[in-house]
Amino acid sequence: MSLLMLVPAVASAAAKSGSEHPEARPYDKTAEASVVVDQALERAAATGKKVILVMGANWCHDSRGLAGWFAKPRFADMLTERYETVYIDVGMRDRNIDIAQRFGIKQIKGTPTILVLSSAGVLLNPKSAPKWRNAASRDEDDIFHYFESFEPETESKTETGKQENR
Question: CA 88, CA 36: separation in Å to the nearest integer?
């Protein structure tokens, strides 16, 4: 029997057991990221939605896992109602970094990095944006709740005068 014939059987068995998170591969390394982001912001401005930029890669287990959850009907319905969702391929954290920098994230420390933007393009989650590197092992309900009840993170001045995320 060919090895290729075994792979679907193994994947199917894992899916039936419920032990794995769903996976998707939505990161297109050939996409014009800045154009796609600008289009999402235009749609968001017209509808009053927020924008989710998922900065990840198809090689990344956690990026694929989060995209898989987002594709499930429970997530897709909620996200479609509230957000424009865009998947940005960051390669090995060496591609499309200018997109993250455009919104105040200096570098991609891990994948996925999730930027939630207002319809005007303001980064709303500067503190939690880089904290999604464990997305595949997070609880489905916790992920859902984060986006369903999203509240912008605020910044305040510390005693030293630097911006602090809270």
Answer: 9
Alpha-carbon dihedral sign for residues 125, 74, 27, 56 = positive
Per-residue confidence (pLDDT) for residue 15, from 0 to 100? 38
pLDDT tens digits, residue range 9-49?
Answer: 333 333 333 436 677 788 999 999 999 999 999 999 999 99
Paired tokens of 25: 């591969």
Using alpha carbons, list the distances in angstroms from residue 148 to 54, 82, 105, 145: 16, 8, 23, 5
**If we measure between CA atoms, which residue out of 143, 27, 138 comes closest to residue 91?**
27
DSSP code, position 116: E
Encoded tokens for 55 = 């900065």
